[in-house]
Design brief:
This protein is of the alpha+beta class. It has eight helices and four strands.
Length: 321
């Protein structure tokens, strides 16, 4: 205490110096910790940047621009596909049972008249053969004017008629020899569906709540160019109709093959002549009456088709509530 009384200013200075030193040391320790933490963050960021730069593709400005251009191209392609699939929404569907029944009767009589008066590409009369009492998929309504009491089926029938009209127009334009069957998915009760045509879910594009479809199956006779022309007509995609399967049935009487028996080899020359050329210079002339192994035959083609329709949400901008 004597020292403090004798030199109070010096003592106060020493105490202040000690306090300042302690504070400075504390600040140095704290800043050293912050610096160490900052160095770790910088090292981690450098490591992440190096990892990204070594990735394939690396997020360089050129790659980012290319990705943006690719995303824009994919968006445009998606929009084009959606517009094509939404063409079915342009069909005008009626809920009036009387009008729909009248349309079915006109549909049947119209295509009966078309197949009877059909001409091929050379403008030569070539009637298309159809079974008796054929109604082009609507045999149920051939001899009746009563339509289903289920009001939800009426517009579906009208839609099926319009889609089938398009399919039959493309088929008739392909010049088939005959139309054997036109089938459509049976609407209504599950029991009715079980006895009618129903597309295999494994090949269908139907997604409940997103994509609705109507399946059809046509069986016709003709030659390979007929099938090719029919598929090419559908490929124009005026309506969103896709081909799901094609089966071909060739009559057994036309599937002829040549099963000529080979003569037995009688000597060494004949044995090796079959592989390396015979020693004899005389070649047998081909049989003029020989039947070719593969020949063009009239076949029966069954094509399964699916009409695709996008279901727009009721609260979307395209389909406001």
């Amino acid at each position: 205490m004597g020292l403090f009384k004798k030199n109070p200013a010096f003592c106060v200075f020493c105490v202040a110096a000690v306090l300042v030193f302690a504070a400075g040391a504390t600040l140095v320790v704290m800043e050293s910790g912050k610096l160490s933490k900052s160095k770790q963050q910088v090292a981690s960021a450098d490591s992440q940047i190096n990892g990204l730069l070594q990735a394939n593709p690396a997020p360089t400005p050129a790659n980012v621009q290319a990705a943006q251009q690719n995303a824009a191209a994919l968006s445009a392609k998606l929009l084009s596909i959606r517009e094509n699939l939404e063409r079915g929404s342009r069909l005008t569907i009626s809920n009036d049972g009387t009008r729909v029944m009248s349309g079915l009767q006109k549909y049947i009589s119209n295509y009966r008249r078309q197949v009877a008066s059909h001409k091929n590409a050379a403008e030569v009369a070539a009637p298309i053969q159809i079974p008796a009492d054929f109604a082009f998929g609507f045999e149920k309504y051939l001899k009746t004017t009563n339509i289903s009491e289920d009001s939800s089926i009426v517009p579906q029938l009208d839609k099926q008629r319009q889609v089938l009209s398009y399919i039959l127009n493309q088929l008739i334009a392909a010049d088939p020899a005959g139309i054997q069957a036109v089938e459509r998915e049976i609407l209504g009760e599950p029991a009715a569906k079980a006895s009618g045509f129903e597309i295999n879910p494994a090949i269908s594009a139907r997604v409940p709540g997103t994509i609705d479809t109507l399946a059809f199956r046509v069986t016709f006779t003709g030659y390979t160019p007929t099938l090719r022309k029919f598929l090419n007509n559908l490929a124009q995609f005026d309506l969103p109709i896709v081909v799901r399967s094609v089966t071909v049935d060739r009559p057994a009487t036309n599937a002829k093959t040549a099963n000529a028996k080979k003569p037995k080899a009688s000597n060494i020359d004949d044995i090796f002549g079959a592989f390396a050329g015979s020693s004899s210079s005389v070649k047998a002339a081909p049989d003029a009456n020989q039947i070719p192994v593969i020949s063009e035959t009239e076949s029966s083609f069954t094509v399964t088709l699916e009409f695709i329709e996008i279901i727009l949400p009721s609260n979307s901008e395209e389909n406001p509530a």
